[in-house]
Design brief:
Length: about 220
């Protein structure tokens, strides 16, 4: 589904979303971070989800600004309540999974303590920004930028550094980082050999420290 481009950010106007590459969250531990600004407050919205229609992990932003990390697995539903996102405010959002437990951070502040132990979906093939696993779910309306994916769990101090405007893992780890691979995908998650001549191309760049950065090219 196509999205608009505003000031170096993806702008989703409802019923628009990004599907990330299928293999992106296959490591046991991972982190996904982004900067998000919600522009619609009528109903709850889904900012992120990974899994399948039967079992999934999703980050929901409530109409009042409350954030909820929701896990569905084996017929059970568990939730973690996260810090609030003020109306119209831009927030740094981070989700980590480590040793089978999840945590949510808003502007560097952690929310909840249950960890959703045993509730992380084993099949994380379908990963979306801006929608849920169910097409009837509420699409996110607003802007998303600086989307980052790591194949390990950042700790609280690293996430706080990112939320404060740090330049990423290179700054946190204090080590030189090199590009080791670049892949191109359509917005539907289909891999292509080069950027499309017209439209939106999703670029997946892998670095020597294990970091994966997702960006887009618009032509």
């Amino acid at each position: 589904m196509s999205v608009s481009y505003r000031s170096n950010a993806l702008y989703m106007r409802g019923q628009q979303y990004i599907q990330l590459p299928y293999s992106l969250l296959q490591s046991d531990d991972f982190t996904i971070t982004m900067i998000a600004k919600r522009t619609s407050y009528a109903t709850d919205k889904i900012l992120f989800t990974t899994g399948s229609s039967d079992e999934y992990l999703s980050l929901n932003i409530g109409a009042s600004g409350n954030s909820v990390l929701k896990a569905v697995k084996d017929g059970k539903v568990e939730e973690i309540s996260g810090p609030e996102i003020e109306s119209g405010a831009t927030a740094h959002v981070a989700l980590t999974v480590k040793n089978g437990e999840a945590a949510i951070y808003i502007d560097g502040k952690i929310g909840g303590t249950t960890g959703l132990k045993g509730m992380i979906p084993s099949n994380r093939l379908l990963t979306y920004i801006g929608r849920g696993q169910n097409l009837a779910a509420s699409y996110f309306t607003g802007s998303v930028s600086d989307l980052r994916v790591y194949n390990y769990a950042l700790d609280a101090s690293e996430i706080a550094a990112l939320a404060a405007g740090g330049s990423g893992v290179g700054e946190i780890a204090g080590a030189a980082v090199e590009v080791v691979g670049v892949e191109y995908y359509t917005t539907q998650g289909v891999r292509i050999s080069a950027p499309s001549e017209r439209g939106v191309t999703i670029v997946r760049t892998s670095y020597s420290d294990g970091t994966v950065r997702i960006e887009k090219i618009i032509r």
